[in-house]
Amino acid sequence: MSRLSLPLAPGAASHTDPRQPVVVTLPDGETLAVKQLLDVDAHNPKLAKSLARGYRTAGLSLLPARLSGVNVCPGSSPGCRAACLNTAGHGGVFPAIHRRRLAKTLAWRKHRGWFAARLDLELSRFVRRCREEGYRPAVRLNVLSDLPWEDLVPTVFRHDARYYDYSAVRTRMERFLRQEFPANYSLCWSRKEDNEGACKRFLARGGTVSVVFAGPKPARFWGHPVVDGDADDLRFLDPPGVVVGLSAKGKARRDRTGFVVRDAAWPRTGRRHRPGDGKPVRRPTARVGSRVEEVYEERLHKNDGRPLL
Ligand code: SF4
Hints:
By secondary structure, the protein is an alpha/beta fold. It contains eight helices and 14 strands. The chain has two domains: 243 residues, no CATH class; 33 residues, no CATH class. The chain is globular.
């Protein structure tokens, strides 16, 4: 029995042939056939960035938090749920993507045997294709969830690939740092507005911690170096004890809960100076939540996070 037991839905089917799709019924009565579980880099802009470093990445995107009726993010916070990446990129624009994620989550809930077998089959094919094309395979099973796959489907780690995830479930991170995880599975702790104490403890023990920043990322945070987490998604290559800086995207740009760290790159004392002519630059003083500040954040985002001077 896994430590995180998700309830099986009534009438769960026993169909386990991974070459056949399973059909799920969505809450509005529509039926959808689930044929494919993993997205391979080209379909996910963030995962595609890893190609430049010689890795192909396959990711599993479920519907986060409790949006499917079952909680797949037990470490989530009000801030991260409101700002979730589910709303960023294509997922925030196309209802069809949202419905496909919902269908996959329901398939996990109702067709557990099929899901595990299908995941294994797709991973076999993915790893083989990577080898044929000269790429190294990387796998992220919790693109929009935080499920303990190491307990739920431990056989999934038998493939010769690097697995990685972000997590905010303390027991998972503790076990990872105690090296009780599959040897090819890495975790990066995910900062929320309510878990900063754990962030600092895990950093001190050599863990890595992701932090979402609005505006420019600082060079150091909490005394630790900051690496650019937007450059690629290969978290298992990060050195120990670093903060992984991510830019606020989608609804996160309007976060007011503290989930997104604001103005971290501005000096606490003294003034900032324009690189070209050295003229002093004033820190934006608009009230948090005001329309002026929202416009500033939007323009900053379009400017790739570089300060607007
Ligand atoms: S834990 Fe991650 S995937 Fe889940 S709601 Fe929060 S940001 Fe979204």
